[in-house]
Amino acid sequence: VILEGGGQRLTNVPHRIECRRETMRVLIVDDEPLARAALASALAERTDVGGVDSANDGEEAMGKLQKQPYDLVLLDIRMPELWGIELLDQMGREKLPAVVFVTPHHEHAVKAVEKHGADYVLKPFSNDPIHAALDVAIHRTIAERLAKLTELLPRLRSLNKKPERIAVKSKGRIFFVDPSEVSTVESEGNYVLLRQATGTFLLRGSISALADKLAPYGFVRIHRSVLVNAAWVEEIHPWATGEYVLQVKAGKEYTVSRKYKENLKGLAGMWIGAEAFSAAG
Amino acid sequence: MVLRLSELLRTTLEHGAADLVPLERDLEFVRGYLDLEKMRLNGRLGLRWKIENGTGEVLVPQLILQPLVENAIVDGVSCSREVGWVEIGARRTGNSIELRIGNNVGGKSPGGMGVGSKNTEARLKFLYAEEHQFSFEVDKNQAATAKLVFPAM
């Protein structure tokens, strides 16, 4: 039996959930008052719903979930903000209520949710799908929910991930760069150039400070004054002198200085037929 | 003509926020712009290109040339009844690059630094601080020249 009012813990997991007699407590988590009202009015029609609470944001929802158990959470997985998913993640597994995702018309989100069989309701609402989703969600076993959510969480997380970008403050302004679009970073005198296919940003400062910061984004230092984006390197040409020259997509060639030769290993996860090179020191 | 115009617009959109582009790309843009002006001026525009070899790859502030070329045309060719000329030059000088935009001065006396020129000055200062020069002069033969010098990268 699902979490009867008292908040009994569902420790023995594979319980069938049956709500024939008992009524459910439902928590609506959505920051749009209109959406909350629409969901609440749909819930009010149901005889199997005993109480409805709502929370405006993740923090409030978390507080409510900790205070008392809910049988069902209607959760807005709003795209730009992660909190819907964070919330699920933080929720103790043993307290896991049924979750129905409420999504705006976001194709990717809907696809992912559809593909993985989570229950979801599309915004704007119409009542039938809400009831259908609620029916399914409520009758899922805890084990099924857990399995579903465990599978779903990382995917939703990646779905939610905005394209990674870095903010650069330079010359009194801050601009944003998608590091995957930067082919190389080069120092030229007092300047550092951030090269992209569409143009180059000009910064002041030293390349060393950037080298560490950009390393997690796949930038490899090949010269005192050059970092290359590993993803942009097309070919490596070994020279008879023991030096290497890198050919960068849609760009120039760069000589790898002896000191940074070791870093070339970072250009690929695996080397085939280049053992000697990958072992080069 | 519409096609040309749309190409120009596309270029300005594609370049986006970046500071610098290869000189070659900025010249392409200017060529597109000049094609339009040639149509407008109906053959009264003569062009001289003095682009030194090897300068095409040097990075310059994007869309740096066009306002100056436009100035040259507005102050020079278009207010003259004669055939006017515009000269566009680029060369390396040590670690710097020098861009020159020259024109014959039309009927009226030269306007000197217009709003466009002030913007150019401000952009160069923003990018290169004191490491730039920007000058404008008119010689005895009624030829005006805007000259920009900044680090060649």
Detailed description of the structure:
The complex is a heterodimer of chains A (281) and B (153). Chain A is built from eight helices and 15 strands. Chain A has helices spanning 33-44, 58-67, 83-90, 107-115, 127-139, 142-160, 207-214, 275-278, and strands at 24-29, 49-55, 72-76, 98-103, 120-122, 166-170, 173-177, 182-188, 191-196, 199-204, 219-223, 226-229, 233-238, 244-248, 253-256. In chain A, the strands form four sheets. In chain A, strands 2-1-3-4-5 form a five-stranded parallel β-sheet, with helices on both faces. In chain B, strands 2-4-5-7-6 form a five-stranded mixed β-sheet, with helices on one face. With 153 residues, chain B is α+β, with helices and mostly antiparallel strands.
How are the strands of the biggest sheet of chain B laid out side by side? 2-4-5-7-6
Radius of gyration of chain A: 27 Å
Structural class of chain B: alpha+beta
Mean pLDDT across the residues of chain B is 84
Shape of chain A: elongated
Q: Name the strands of the widest sheet of chain A in spatial order.
A: 2-1-3-4-5
Q: Count of helices of chain B?
A: 4
Largest sheet composition of chain A: 5 strands, parallel
What would you call the shape of chain B? Answer: globular
How are the SSEs ordered, and which strands pair?
The complex is a heterodimer of chains A (281) and B (153).
Chain A: E1 24-29, H1 33-44, E2 49-55, H2 58-67, E3 72-76, H3 83-90, E4 98-103, H4 107-115, E5 120-122, H5 127-139, H6 142-160, E6 166-170, E7 173-177, E8 182-188, E9 191-196, E10 199-204, H7 207-214, E11 219-223, E12 226-229, E13 233-238, E14 244-248, E15 253-256, H8 275-278
Parallel strand pairs in A: 1-2, 1-3, 3-4, 4-5
Antiparallel strand pairs in A: 6-7, 8-9, 8-12, 9-10, 11-12, 13-14, 14-15
Helix pairs in contact in A: 2-3, 4-6
Chain B: H1 2-15, E1 20-22, H2 23-41, E2 45-51, E3 59-61, H3 65-75, E4 84-93, E5 96-104, H4 115-128, E6 133-138, E7 143-151
Helix pairs in contact in B: 1-2, 2-3
